[in-house]
Design brief:
The chain has 189 residues and is α+β, with helices and mostly antiparallel strands. The protein contains nine helices and six strands, in the order H-E-E-E-H-H-E-H-H-H-H-H-E-E-H.
């Protein structure tokens, strides 16, 4: 589920407590979470609703300026059913704290090594993880298409791989490009 930065900020400050989506079937369930720029968002409940039963108050609680605006947003989606979800901020993104860890224990290093080794082994074209980390280390702030081209790779698969490294707390996304996080620098150390 895509959550706009403005909606995520509203969820974080408590002004947005609902979300509406048009889907063919529920794509979230109660207890599901999603990481956003403001932290982890939790789906507290989800229920199918009649769009005509949605109120002005519901629209405001979903961050829309009016019920008409909410209906316009929902009409742009192709799903057959409208779902109403209660949402809340579950807490900070745990990757942020992880990225800031400048020291790695032997156990943490071993865990990272094992994960990188699995990703390398799964790639038919061969190992990629340490090569991408070294490239980001050498060229911080360089656009993803330029980094991908340096490795003779397509941009979108390259970006997916960098997101995997970010999941381990090894990289940070910048306005343009990436950099190694303190944890990533400690790993490459």
């Amino acid at each position: 589920m895509l959550i706009s930065p403005a909606t995520a900020a509203g969820i974080a400050d408590g002004s947005v407590t609902l979300a509406f989506r048009r889907w063919d079937r529920p794509r979230m369930r109660p207890g599901s979470t999603q990481r956003t720029a403001v932290g982890v968002i939790r789906i507290d409940s989800i229920a199918e609703v009649d769009p005509d039963a949605v109120t002005d108050d519901d629209a405001r609680r979903a961050g829309a300026r009016s019920l008409d605006e909410l209906h316009r947003l929902l009409s742009r989606r192709a799903g057959a059913v409208v779902y109403r979800m209660e949402v809340s901020l579950a807490g900070p993104d745990p990757r942020v704290a992880l990225r800031e860890q400048a020291d790695m224990s032997a156990e943490e290093r071993s865990s990272v090594e094992a994960r990188l080794d699995r990703w390398d082994a799964a790639r038919a074209e061969g190992p990629w993880t340490r090569e991408v980390l070294r490239l980001i280390s050498e060229r911080p702030g360089v656009r993803a298409p330029d980094l991908a081209a340096a490795l003779r790779r397509e941009t979108l698969p390259f970006k997916r791989d960098v997101r995997k490294l970010k999941e381990l707390g090894l990289t940070n996304s910048l306005t343009v490009g990436y950099e190694l996080s303190p944890r990533g620098r400690a790993y490459l150390g």
